Amino acid sequence: MSKEDNLKENWKKDFPYKKQESTQVSRRDFAKFLTLVSGGLMVGSGLVAAKAYLLPNEGVIGEHFVCDVKDIPIGGTKGFVIEGSTIPYILVHLESGMFRAYEQKCTHLSCAVYYKPGTGIIHCPCHDGSFDALTGDVIAGPPPRALPQLEVFLKGEKIFVRALENRES
Ligand code: FES
């Protein structure tokens, strides 16, 4: 027996599996895999649901300064976050001269929305959702509800926001 044949024989003794057997997945292994994956998904969904119910909402309390009137031209916007919160907001200076402030997260799948100057529309680029910039109401697309809104008010030349009295959340 040549040295090469001898090596092959020894290798077969050490690894007594046939190639086909080693790549086969048994029903039992497949069932174990499916159980593990579904279990992981179930636990993940449970954690997300628990977080939504157990952690308090980041409600806006009190009034908050955003910027000076001169900092936001007509048709312009300013993004801001209220101290102690992580929710992004957008302040819009409408062409009518009014100010509006909304959460900058689309109510569909939370993409960032932006104001289209001169249109009166706040747009979501992810699935072409549109909101009325004056009211926050849905105009088109898949968003299920209006953009959450803050009340905007002025003190002299300074712009402030606070929670809307009748705000749902
Ligand atoms: S995330 Fe805004 S329309 Fe889908």
List keywords for this structure.
Rieske Iron-sulfur Protein, single chain, six-stranded antiparallel beta sheet, binds FE2/S2 (inorganic) cluster, 169 residues, four-stranded antiparallel beta sheet, 3 helices, 2 domains, alpha+beta, 27% helix
Would you mind describing this structure in some detail?
The protein is of the alpha+beta class and 169 residues long. It folds into 2 domains: 44 residues, no CATH class; 101 residues, Rieske [2Fe-2S] iron-sulphur domain (Rieske Iron-sulfur Protein). It is built from 3 helices and 10 strands, in the order H-H-H-E-E-E-E-E-E-E-E-E-E. The strands form 2 sheets. Strands 1-10-9-4-3-2 form a 6-stranded antiparallel β-sheet, with no helix packed on it. It has a 4-stranded antiparallel β-sheet with strand order 5-6-7-8, with no helix packed on it. A hairpin with a 4-residue loop joins strand 5 and strand 6. The longest helix is centred in the N-terminal third of the chain and has 28 residues. The protein is elongated. Bound molecules: FE2/S2 (inorganic) cluster. FE2/S2 (inorganic) cluster binds next to loops. Keywords: 2Fe-2S, Disulfide bond, Iron, Iron-sulfur, Membrane, Metal-binding, Transmembrane, Transmembrane helix. InterPro entries: Rieske_2Fe-2S, Rieske_2Fe-2S_sf, Rieske_Fe-S_prot, Rieske_Fe-S_prot_C, TAT_signal. Its cofactor is [2Fe-2S] cluster. This is Rieske (2Fe-2S) protein. It holds the Pfam family Rieske.
Helix-strand pattern, N to C? HHHEEEEEEEEEE
The percentage helix is 25-40%
Q: Write down the CATH topology of the largest domain.
A: Rieske Iron-sulfur Protein
Distance between the termini: 82 Å
CATH superfamily of the largest domain: Rieske [2Fe-2S] iron-sulphur domain
Going by helix content, strand content and strand pairing, the class is alpha+beta
Our estimate of the beta-strand percent is: 25-35%
Large-scale geometry = elongated
Number of helices: 3
Task: Give the C-level CATH assignment of the largest domain.
Answer: Mainly Beta
Q: What is the number of domains? A: 2
Arithmetic mean pLDDT: 88
Q: pLDDT below 50 for ≥5 consecutive residues: which ranges?
A: none
Main beta-sheet strand count, sense and barrel state:
6 strands, antiparallel
How many β-strand runs? Answer: 10
Instruction: Give the spatial strand order of the biggest sheet.
Output: 1-10-9-4-3-2
Q: How much is the radius of gyration in Å?
A: 29 Å
CATH architecture of the largest domain: 3-layer Sandwich
